[in-house]
Amino acid sequence: MMNRLPVQRCQYCGCEDIGLSWQHGETLVTFKRHGLLDNRLRYLICRRCGAVLYQRVAEPHKFPPVG
Ligand SMILES: [Zn+2]
């Protein structure tokens, strides 16, 4: 599903050892206007310095537009 990583190397330390992480459980991104919809967050993390390089939700189309 994520064949092409949006980040190829750490912009902070230059390391190319990138890890993929899902955030589960308690810390869901939720919005309550239409009941409980939640999305898991997906992270790309530099495995050398620990910087979070990229994050996105699993189903962005569920979020209401700002305008
Ligand atoms: Zn790094």
Describe what you observe in this structure.
It contains no helices and five strands. It has a three-stranded antiparallel beta sheet with strand order 1-4-5, with no helix packed on it. Strands 2-3 form a two-stranded antiparallel ribbon. A hairpin with a 5-residue loop joins strand 2 and strand 3. The chain is elongated, with a radius of gyration of 14 Å. Zinc ion binds next to loops.
Give the low-confidence spans: 32-36
How many DSSP H or I helices?
A: 0
Bound molecules: zinc ion
Radius of gyration: 14 Å
Would you count the extended β strands for me?
5
Q: Bin the helical content.
A: under 10%
Give the biggest beta sheet: 3 strands, antiparallel
The share of residues in extended strands comes to 35-45%
Strand line-up in the sheet with most strands = 1-4-5
Structural class: mainly beta
Q: Distance N terminus to C terminus?
A: 29 Å
Overall pLDDT, averaged?
Answer: 77
Taken from the alpha-carbon principal axes, the silhouette is: elongated
Along the chain, the helix and strand elements come as: EEEEE
